[in-house]
Design a protein that fits this description.
With about 70 residues, the chain is an alpha+beta fold. It has 2 helices and 4 strands, in the order βαββαβ.
């Protein structure tokens, strides 16, 4: 599996849903906004990152799987 690239855009509002769903991939930074902190190097982490992107109310998570 090629490791996908996960990005949190400037649209993040810091709701934290991504951290709840994929704590190993996302965390909130000092400003209360989401940041990518872990690799998406397993099928489980990819599934969690996809779920986080789906649940993000701001659509601020992008996953490039190419």
């Amino acid at each position: 599996m090629n490791e996908p690239r996960v990005i949190v855009t400037g649209d993040c509002a810091g709701t934290g849903q991504c951290v709840v769903v994929a704590a190993g991939v996302f965390a909130l930074d000092d400003d209360g906004l989401s940041t990518v902190v872990g690799r998406v190097d397993t099928a489980e982490r990819l599934a969690a990152a996809r779920k986080a992107a789906e649940l993000c109310p701001m659509a601020a998570i992008q996953i490039d799987e190419d």
